[in-house]
Amino acid sequence: MSGAGARPAGAVDEAGAAQAVQQMFDSIAPRYDLLNHVLSANVDRLWWWRTARRFRAVLREPDARVLDICCGTGDMTMALLKRRPKGARPILAADFSRNMLSRGAKKFGAAARAEDAPYAVALEADALHLPLRSNSLDLIVSAFGFRNLANYEAGLREFHRVLKPGGQLGILDFSEPGGLVGKAYAVYFRRVLPAIGRAICGKDGPYNYLPTSVGNFPPPPAMLSLMNSTGYEQCAWQPYTFGIAGLYTATRSNDGRVQQ
Ligand SMILES: C[S@@+](CC[C@H](N)C(=O)[O-])C[C@H]1O[C@@H](n2cnc3c(N)ncnc32)[C@H](O)[C@@H]1O
After folding, report:
1. Pocket probe mutation, ligand 1, options 91, 95, 103, max atoms within 8 Å of Cβ
2. What are the tens digits of pLDDT across the range 182-237?
3. What is the Å distance from ligand 1's center to 183 Cα?
4. DSSP assignment, residue 242?
């Protein structure tokens, strides 16, 4: 598992993969929200809502330090903000695609919110090299972003570094359901979805990459084992909508020890 990560077509190493992912999201940013809602029939809203609800206890703490990493155009951030009290410390919403992030900032920034309403601060940053202090965060959430990292183990270790001992991690992402639902979904995901994506977005790459990246993403048992071995406890996976998506949750170990 060590070294596994996203590899868009043509990328030969981690640096190339990260650059290809960044360029791809920069290029689809103007159409991203529309495509997302069309392709998921708006079920994505339910997934963001469920993820935010899972972390409601920490989100309602005004002083909690929260990071939404790979925030993109900010819909996960918006769902998290709905659970923050008035006057709460702003959420940090980070992404390395400037075009995605700037759209997000328009939704979740202070200027977009009523006075005293919770807001988020946009941070242009790479998930594998966060410009944040060690042991500083209470919660990290990532929605449909982690799968795109060029190195999953490095991502988990970086999140571990910046989380406080006892801090919580939530990773929402696609998975491949089994059984009959899985077979039907595979046809949609591998054939219909890329065709719709191509029609709306006018290019092939991104929506061919999506099913490929989900196919390459570690299945739940392998992800949970990786989370355990990188210093997380209480690692669990909750399937959403027949396992089309699911939420990984974990707590950063208290002793700061990372198992080798
Ligand atoms: C599929 S979008 C998800 C956006 C949003 N979280 C959502 O739920 O709609 C994935 C996002 O991850 C970002 N991303 C991928 N790799 C990243 C990295 N290494 N560092 C920061 N952002 C990254 C991309 O730029 C993109 O905006």
Report:
1. 95
2. 888 888 878 887 888 788 777 766 778 888 899 899 999 999 999 999 999 999 99
3. 27
4. G
